[in-house]
């Protein structure tokens, strides 16, 4: 705690007398011993406009606010009678930057969808993400390791993992977020957290629902228990090097034997496969039909990490090989129906999750860009004084606000429709939204790169000053959104749009004429 106060004159005088003091946001820093170590060099600090002066504006043109916290040890006091203006981020709090939060979280707006328990729930989840998940995510992004065991255990204990799979029977009897919401309320609640990283149970979100919906009860209960406790993760293994959107082109084979199945083949780009115990695998049976089997890690199953350009190894993405893997007959999902139906039934929830994440990501990028545009000076004026920059910001806002309104409407429908009704009415809507949101995300990433200019090249991940997060995302976002649009056979954007239109054509009344 720094309690000493100095007049502005005293700061200048100390500097003339040989020390090197500066004022940043009414806080006084003694840089005398740090100056020669300063990553930006000594000369900039000795500049007469900086040394002994108020360097707030110049500082924020080049650094994030958290640099000041990291170097708090250099602060020796505050300016007499002044208070710091730059707000500290309180974990779990809402952003005060315009448009950085959706309207339902912005004072003065109304929403037909969200009730008091949604606000309670959102606040608890965001606090958890800010305090617990965020620091671990930064550390794991740097060292490439999987999410820490403690985080996964805590998510399992709070039943966050269970809630991320969506509403359903698997929530019955569970205490959610230490009781902050009831199971009944959770039926209408979706996590509006800033897009969770793939590594944090992304495989469970997409790999577990087919088990919940189509596995024989005994197998279902065992896997639900194992996965939601965080002990034995699951992943969805559909895509192959040979077959992405073209599910019919799968080459992973399942041969029927007297005592079950024997699986041979490969799977590629399988999220969380590196540490998964269960694999929900789409295979081609001898008769050409698709069957979905739950394979347990064991003899004949191998996973090899894949380096992707959209995430670090934290996602546990892998190339999977199955060599003569024996699978018991009871491990087939939905034995009474074509496997393709099971894959398709999974799509709405999966696309919803991925779309929500990409919309949250766009908003975060915008927040960083907006802050930067107002604090960075060019030709003596804020970047935001340039009409071309304002146009980019306007385009970003229009894109993510349209996505937000659309997803809220679809979510509302999902909460009131049966799975069958969802498949009939929402498959097209969800496909269009996903196409729209991923394209919006790519456009926003491209705009962000332009707004950040040269700063986007900062990639000093190991340095004390984290690079602008949005720049860190600049390489990943275009490919992440692209990937989100094709992920898990959720199909490339054009195919998605086509799927929705074809469904609409099927529903077109025969007697309609111009
Ligand atoms: C409390 C005072 C300060 C601290 C703790 C500090 C710390 C840092 C750190 C950690 C970096 C590395 C940033 C990175 O890795 O991307 C940096 C860069 C830099 N700093 Fe400072 N700094 C301070 C004040 C200033 C001031 C007053 C100026 C004057 C304009 C300045 C100019 C620069 C410049 C030019 C760079 C290089 C930026 C770049 O590579 O884009 N710093 N500073």
TrEMBL record:
GO biological process: fatty acid beta-oxidation using acyl-CoA dehydrogenase
GO annotations of cellular component type: cytoplasm
Pfam families noted in UniProt: Acyl-CoA_dh_1, Acyl-CoA_dh_M, Acyl-CoA_dh_N, Cyt-b5
InterPro entries in alphabetical order: Acyl-CoA_dehydrogenase, Acyl-CoA_DH_CS, Acyl-CoA_Oxase/DH_mid-dom, Acyl-CoA_Oxase/DH_mid-dom_sf, AcylCo_DH-like_C, AcylCo_DH/oxidase_C, AcylCoA_DH/ox_N, AcylCoA_DH/ox_N_sf
One Gene Ontology molecular-function label: acyl-CoA dehydrogenase activity
Region of interest called Disordered, as start-end residue ranges on this chain: 455-474
Cofactor: FAD
Keyword field: FAD, Flavoprotein, Oxidoreductase
Residue span(s) of domain Cytochrome b5 heme-binding: 3-80
Gene3D superfamilies given in the database record: Acyl-CoA dehydrogenase/oxidase, N-terminal domain, Butyryl-CoA Dehydrogenase, subunit A, domain 2, Butyryl-CoA Dehydrogenase, subunit A, domain 3, Cytochrome b5-like heme/steroid binding domain
Top-level taxon of origin: Eukaryota
Family in the record: Belongs to the acyl-CoA dehydrogenase family.
Name of the protein: Cytochrome b5 heme-binding domain-containing protein
Organism from which the protein derives: Mycena venus
Lineage: Eukaryota, Fungi, Dikarya, Basidiomycota, Agaricomycotina
């Amino acid at each position: 705690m720094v309690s000493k106060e100095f007049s502005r004159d005293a700061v200048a005088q100390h500097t003339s007398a040989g020390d090197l003091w500066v004022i940043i946001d009414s806080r006084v820093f003694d840089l005398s011993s740090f100056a020669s170590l300063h990553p930006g060099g000594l000369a900039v600090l000795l500049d007469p406009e900086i040394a002994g002066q108020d360097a707030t504006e110049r500082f924020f043109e080049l650094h994030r606010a958290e640099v000041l916290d990291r170097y708090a040890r250099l602060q020796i006091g505050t300016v007499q009678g002044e208070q710091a203006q730059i707000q500290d981020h309180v974990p779990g709090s809402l952003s005060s930057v315009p448009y950085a939060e959706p309207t339902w979280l912005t004072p003065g707006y109304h929403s037909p969808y969200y009730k008091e328990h949604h606000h309670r729930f959102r606040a608890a989840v965001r606090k958890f993400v800010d305090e617990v998940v965020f620091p671990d995510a930064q550390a794991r992004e740097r060292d490439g390791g999987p999410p820490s065991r403690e985080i996964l255990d805590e998510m399992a204990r709070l039943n966050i993992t269970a809630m991320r799979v969506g509403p359903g029977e698997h929530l019955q009897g569970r205490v959610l977020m230490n009781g902050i919401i009831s199971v009944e309320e959770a039926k209408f609640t979706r996590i509006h957290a800033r897009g969770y990283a793939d590594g944090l149970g992304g495989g469970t979100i997409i790999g577990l629902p087919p088990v919940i919906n189509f596995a024989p009860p005994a197998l279902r209960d065992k896997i639900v228990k194992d996965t939601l406790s965080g002990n034995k993760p699951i992943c969805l293994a559909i895509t192959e090097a040979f077959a992405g959107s073209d599910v019919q082109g799968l080459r992973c084979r399942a041969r029927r034997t007297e005592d079950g199945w024997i699986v041979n083949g490969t799977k590629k780009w399988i999220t969380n496969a590196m540490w998964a115990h269960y694999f929900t695998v789409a295979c081609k049976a001898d008769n050409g039909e698709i069957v979905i089997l739950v394979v347990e890690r064991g003899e004949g199953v191998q996973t090899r990490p894949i380096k992707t350009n959209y995430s670090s190894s934290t996602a546990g993405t892998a190339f999977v090989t199955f060599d003569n893997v024996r699978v018991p007959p009871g491990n087939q999902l939905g034995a009474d129906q074509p496997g393709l139906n099971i894959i398709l039934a999974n799509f709405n929830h999966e696309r919803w999750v991925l779309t929500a994440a990409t919309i949250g990501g766009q908003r975060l990028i915008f927040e960083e860009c907006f802050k930067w545009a107002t604090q960075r000076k060019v030709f003596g004026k804020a970047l935001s004084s340039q009409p071309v920059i304002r146009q980019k910001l306007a385009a970003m806002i229009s894109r993510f606000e349209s996505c937000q309104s659309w997803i809220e409407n679809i979510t509302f429908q999902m909460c009131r429709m049966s799975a069958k009704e969802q498949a009939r009415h929402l498959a097209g809507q969800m496909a269009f939204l996903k196409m729209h949101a991923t394209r919006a995300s790519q456009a926003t990433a491209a705009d962000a790169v332009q707004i950040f200019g040269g700063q986007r090249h900062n990639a000093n991940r190991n340095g004390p000053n984290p690079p602008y997060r949005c720049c860190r995302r600049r390489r990943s976002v275009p490919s992440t959104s692209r990937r989100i649009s094709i992920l898990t056979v959720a199909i490339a954007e054009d195919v998605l749009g086509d799927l929705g239109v074809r469904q609409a054509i099927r529903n077109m009344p025969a007697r309609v004429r111009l």
